[in-house]
Design brief:
The chain has about 80 residues and is mainly beta. Helices cover about 10% and strands about 30% of the residues. The chain has a 5-stranded mixed sheet, with no helix packed on it.
């Protein structure tokens, strides 16, 4: 299955060419599988969205992905 992945902030270097966006072929079926495939399974407080809808960390394992989904992953926003 192929999904469009957009990584923001310091995560953008994790996709090919470091452009922050890429179409990736993944072997798994869930958002948790994609997070693991990219190497972010241990990333604390990672924010994720599928097709513009936020998906909390505790729902990633149950969130099925479909071919062509648009997934955004971002580190938490810090301010002061």
């Amino acid at each position: 299955m192929s999904v469009h992945v957009r990584l923001t902030g310091r995560l953008s270097d994790l996709v090919p060419r470091g452009e922050g966006e890429a179409d990736l072929d993944i072997a798994g079926d869930t958002l948790a599988d994609l997070v693991d495939a990219i190497g972010l399974e241990g990333e604390e407080h990672l924010l994720t969205a599928v097709n513009g809808t936020m998906v909390p960390a505790d729902e990633r394992a149950g969130r099925l992905l479909a071919d062509g989904d648009r997934v955004t992953m971002m580190p938490p926003v810090k301010g002061g």
